Amino acid sequence: MSETLRIIPLGGLGEIGLNMLVVEYGDSAVAIDCGVMFPEPSMLGIDLVVPDVSYLRDRPERLQAIVLTHG
Known about the structure:
It is a single chain. This protein is mainly β and 71 residues long. It has one helix spanning 54-57, and strands spanning 5-11, 20-25, 28-32, 63-67. The chain is elongated and about 50 Å long. The termini are far apart.
């Protein structure tokens, strides 16, 4: 059985900020970036918006690395 390469965006599509991408191959995953986004004016009391990382939280054994591209 051949391994499958999967590219899974967790945030940042169609918006500025919030970038996070997971690249999976077989049982291993690498997360690229973990960006934040500033809240909309209507989101009172919220300082930052973060990507939904529940996909990674449900599969912690797969995550091998986090690559940060800029700060």
